[in-house]
Structures are given as C-alpha cells and as structure tokens.
Design brief:
Largest sheet of chain B: none
Family (chain A): Belongs to the membrane magnesium transporter (TC 1.A.67) family.
Order of helices and strands of chain B: HHHHH
Shape of chain A: elongated
Number of strands of chain A: 0
Largest interface: A-B, 46 and 48 residues
Strand content of chain B: under 5%
InterPro entries (chain A): MMgT (IPR018937)
Strand content of chain A: under 5%
Shape of chain B: elongated
Subcellular location (chain A): Endoplasmic reticulum membrane
Distance between the termini of chain A: 63 Å
Helix content of chain A: 40-55%
Largest sheet of chain A: none
Helix content of chain B: over 70%
Radius of gyration of chain B: 26 Å
Structural class of chain B: mainly alpha
Oligomer: heterodimer
Protein name (chain A): Membrane magnesium transporter
GO molecular function, one term (chain A): inorganic cation transmembrane transporter activity
Mean pLDDT of chain A: 83
Number of strands of chain B: 0
Structural class of chain A: mainly alpha
Number of helices of chain A: 2
Amino acid sequence: MAVGFAVGVLGVLILSHAAYSTIQYRTLLKITEEEFSGPPINVVFELLLGLVLCMWAALAVPGKFQSIQLDSDENRVVALPSNLDFMIFNHRGKAFPLECTLKLK
Amino acid sequence: IAIGDLYDAMAGHDDSGASEKKASDFDIPTFSNENMQSNMKVIYYSRTFMSIIGGVIAGILGFTGLMGFIFYFLVMAITSIGLTAKAGFSIHSYFDSWNRIILDGFLGGLLSFVLFWTFAYDIVHIF
C-alpha cells in the first residue's frame, strides 16, 4: 500500500516534470516563432513512463478485491453485527415455495 | 369451521406448491453484498484517478477536440484491462457479471477528465 502510494507520487512528479519541460519547449518555440505540433520525443517518453507508474499506483493503492463467493476461504468467519436491528443471515428459507396465498379469514 | 377451512386451503395450496417446485428452479444466486460493494468502490477509485491522470496527459500533449475524447476512451480501456488483470481474469469470484468491470463507471470520470485536461492545457500552452 505504501509502495503503491510512493509509486503514484513518483508518477505525478514525473508528469509535472514533463509539463515543465513542455512549457520550456513552448517558450523556445515562441522565440523562434514556430508552430507547436507536439512535445519533443523525450517528453513523450516521460509522459508514457508517468502513465505507466500512475496506472500501477491506481491499481495497487485502493485495496485488494475481496471474493464474493459465500463458500470461499476468506468469507468463512462472519461476525455478528453490533447493530441488532439489521442482521443478514443465509439460511435454508429460500428452499420454501415462494407463493403464499393463504389468507386468514 | 374456520379451522377446517384453513386445513382445506393448506392442503390445496400444498399440491399446487409441490407441482410448482418441480417446474421452477429455486436456486437464486447469492453472493456477499458488502464485498461486492467494496469491490465496486475500488473500481471507482481506480477509474477516477486514471481519468484525472489521463486529463493531465492529454493537456500536456496538446490534444484539442475529438482527439482528447478518443484518448479518454483509450485510457479507460487500458484501465479496464488493468482491473481485469488485477482480478486475476477470474471475474466471477469477485463480481457478478462482466459488465461491472468493463462498462460500469466508464463515463463517470469523463467530467474529471475534461476538467483536468482544460486545466493542464491552460497551464502548459496558454500561460
């Protein structure tokens, strides 16, 4: 988690360095009065590196995926919630027929 | 008399219930909802962060108009592939359908992307 965060910070720093390089490139172009067609190739590589690092951080930092299967190993132990008003149980009640048209007269 | 009516009603309904049990399937797919929602939150955070980073990169590269939106969809597609790889390509143990990881939240980051795209473009190219 901390490694992913550090990688993300590094990626953002590389992106800001690429932005600064592009600003300097543009001031150079303004001096020589040329058109801006694209940043120089080393800035493009820097942006690509920054994108890869930030992608890695975006996948690693928010947390791991948790299994949703009810019979997987990490879902075995279930703690009873402290709020007694709302509890969810899995029981065999779903095996009962759903239709119930009994009416008390 | 009322109790007799109740017994007759129950007997009648048991028969119809038994015949229905053979016809329909009671296997409702269940999964742990809180884990599912925490997984959706993880996807949301990842997509939002990648939208912002994609916006900054699009601004630095000087994209204008349609190219920027194409870049956004490219970044979202790469994020989808990355999320699928993070889930180990076995989607069904973490989500209930493929749509969750591929389509959900695809357009949610679009506004953040445009904001940071405009921001970065202004900083780098205009000021």
